[in-house]
Amino acid sequence: MKDQITYDSASDTLTFHIEELPEDTMKIITSQPIEFVLDVTLHLYTGALLEFDIRGLKDGFDGEIPEGIEYDPDTDTLYLHLHPDDNSDGMCDMAYHDVEKNVLVMLNRSNVGNLTGIEIVGIETLLETVIDI
Predict the structure, then answer these.
(1) Domain range annotation of the chain
(2) What element of type H or E holds 124?
(3) How would you classify the pairing of strands 49-55 and 38-43?
(4) Residue 61 in 3-state DSSP?
(5) For the chain, how big is the Rg over CA atoms in Å?
(6) 104: exposed, middle or buried (C-beta count within 10 Å: 0-12, 13-18, 19+)?
(7) Beta-bridge partner residues of 55
(8) What is the full DSSP assignment across 88-127?
(9) What is the pLDDT of residues 33-88, one digit of tens each?
(10) Among 77, 56, 76, 73, which Cα is nearest to 65's?
(11) Residue 131: which of 3, 4, 14, 2 has the closest Cα?
(12) Which residues pair with 38 in a beta bridge?
């Protein structure tokens, strides 16, 4: 599998590759739950999250944090809320963990398993190493 996290400086896009994309691109769908900031790529038949892109991190979202995004400086955690009922205390899947850099990506789930949010713990460390700011 290619690198799990990649950054494209031309578009200021940080991409998290969770699962391999299928060879048949007709089996994927893309959605933009947070307009102009977050794209998610899902498997058409299983609904599995394959990858997600966050745009505007280096530029700081042009000075204003879009609705659905929250940053907690005390825990260095970026929250991407995809549903009003998103809750850090519920079920989640660990999508990425780097023990050395202390970076963790979790996918929050509802009580029936639907994706409700994404949490990135250690976002500053991640930006410093991947984007090199």
Answers:
(1) 5-131
(2) helix 123-126
(3) antiparallel
(4) helix
(5) 14
(6) middle
(7) 13
(8) TTS-EEEEEEETTTTEEEEEEE-TTS-EEEEEEETHHHHI
(9) 998 899 999 999 988 999 999 998 777 766 677 888 998 989 999 999 999 888 77
(10) 56
(11) 14
(12) 34, 54
